[in-house]
Amino acid sequence: MKDMGLWDEGDWIAVIALVVLGVFLTIGALIAGSKKPEFAGHPKGLYMLFFAEMWERFSYYGMRALLIFYLTQHWLFSDGKSNLIYGAYTSLVYITPVLGGYLADRYLGQRKAVLFGGVLLALGHLFMAVEGDHGITDAAVKQSEGAINVFWLALALIIVGSGFLKANISVMVGQLYRLTDARRDAAYTIFYMGINVGAALGTILVGYLGQKIGWSYGFGLAGIGMVAGLIVFVLGKNVLLGAGEAPAPLARNKEISIYGIGIAAVAVMWALVQYQDVIQNILIVSGLALLGYVLYESFKLDKEPRERMFAILFLIALNPLFWGLFEQAGGSFNLYTDRFVDKGGVPASVFQSINPIYIILFAPVFAALWQWLGKRGLEPSAPAKFALALAQVGLGFLVFVWGANSVGPAVATPVFFVFMLYLLHTTGELCLSPVGLSAMNRLAPSFLASLIMGAWFYMTAVGNFVAGKIGEATGGESGNMTKEATLGIYWEIGLITIGVSVVVLALSPIVKKWMHLETLRDREIPGREELGEPQAAGTHPEPKGA
C-alpha cells in the first residue's frame, strides 16, 4: 500500500470512486432490507434492475477502457490493427441484441435472457483475466498460442452476452409499470443513472487497477462486478413481480436448444472478431439488403408515411458518421491520451469516465432545454438537431487539434483539451441519440416499428466499425500512431464533419416537411415505450424523458 503522502491524482480519483461505490452499495442494502414493496414511490424491482445493470455496465465499460491498451501493450498488435479489432468488437456488440431480443420476445422472456446473458458476460470478463505470455510480433505464431484464443473467446462471450442482456433488461423496467403510469419516465431516468454510474465507476476502478497494478487485476475486477450483478439479479427475482417472464410456457428441451443457439453464436463471434474484413463485408451486404427492404416497403405506402420513411432513412444514414468519430474515444483517442497528453499521473483509461459523468450532468439540462424551447416554438427539428450533433463532434476534434498545436509538437497536449473534446462530443451525443430514438418511434409505421429500431442500432454498429477503420488510419503505413499524423487525421475528419453538418442543416427544412408532424396521430402500440434502452455511456440509446 502506497503511503498517502505519495498518492498522485490517479490514486485519489480511484479512492473517491471507491467511496462513491460504497455509498451506492449502502443505499442498495437499505433498499433490499426494507420490508415495504416500494421505495421512494417506485417498486423495489426498479432498484434491483438498477443495481444489476450498474454492475453490468461497471464491468463492460471498465473492460472497454482497457481493451485498446491490452491489445497494444500486452498482445503487441500494432496501433492500427488494435483499433480495427476494437471497432470490430464494439460493432458486434451492437448487432447481437437483434438475436437476443428476438429470442426473448418469442421464447425465453426477458428475465431468462438476461440471466443467460449475464452468465456469458461473467465468463467472458473472467476469461479476460487470463493473460498468458506477452504477445509477439509474428501474428501466425501468436494465433497458435492458447492464451490468445482464450482472449478471442472472452470477447465472443461478452459480445453474445451483451446481446442477450443489453436491450432486455431495460424492457423489464417498463414492464414494472402500466403503460399509463406517470412514473415511467422517472423510472427510466433512475435506471439510466444506474447505467452511467456503473460506467463511470467501472472505467475509473477497472482502468486504474489494469494500468497501475496489472491487467488481470483490472479485468478480474470487471468479472467480479459482473458476478455481483448476477447475484443481485438472481436474489431479486421476487421483487420483479412477474416482469420479464416467457410469453408462453416453454418446453425444457426447447429452452435448452435456445441456449445452444447462444453458444453457437459465441463460436461464430469467436471467428468474426479475428477476421475484421469478413465483418466489413457482412455489414455492407446486409446493410444494402436492409436498405432495399425498407425502400421496398416504403414505396408501398401512401404519400405521407412514405415521406416519413424517407426522413427516417436520412437520419439513420448520419449514424455511422457520428459514431465513427465519437467512438474514437475508446480507440485512437485513448491511445493518444496515454502517449501525448499531460495526464498528471492519471491512467489514460480513467479519462473514459468523463463521458458518462458529463451525461449524468447534462442529460437533464438538455431534456429541460428542449421542453423550454418547445413551449416557445423555438425547438430545432430532429434533422436540425442532428446537424448540431455533427457540428459539435467535428468541432470537438478541431478544438483539440488547435489546443495540441498551440503548445508545439514537442510539448504534451494540455489535459484541458481532453475535457473540452469530451464536453463537445457529449453535448453532440445528447443532440442525436435521444432525438434519433424518438424520431424512429414517432415516424415509423406500426408494422415496421421494430425493424426501424433495429436499423437504427444496426447503423450504430456500422459506425463503430467505421471508428475502427478511422483508428486504423491513425497508425499510418507502419501501423504505429504518431502525434502529427493523428492530429492531421483528427483535423481532416473534423472539417469534413462540420461540412456535412452544414449540408444537413440546409436540408433540414425539407426533411422536416417529409416528417409531416402536423398530421401525426397517437397510436396504441403494446410495448412501444420499451423500444430502445436508456443511454449507456458511449452506447447511445437515451433516457425516456430526454
Automatic annotation (TrEMBL):
Residues 45-512 form the Major facilitator superfamily (MFS) profile domain. Keywords: Cell membrane, Membrane, Peptide transport, Protein transport, Transmembrane, Transmembrane helix, Transport. GO terms for molecular function: peptide transmembrane transporter activity. It is found in: Cell membrane. It comes from Sphingopyxis macrogoltabida (Sphingomonas macrogoltabidus). NCBIfam families: yjdL_sub1_fam. This is MFS transporter. The chain crosses the membrane at residues 12-33, 84-104, 113-130, 150-169, 190-209, 215-235, 256-273, 279-296, 308-326, 357-374, 386-404, 410-432, 444-467, 487-511.
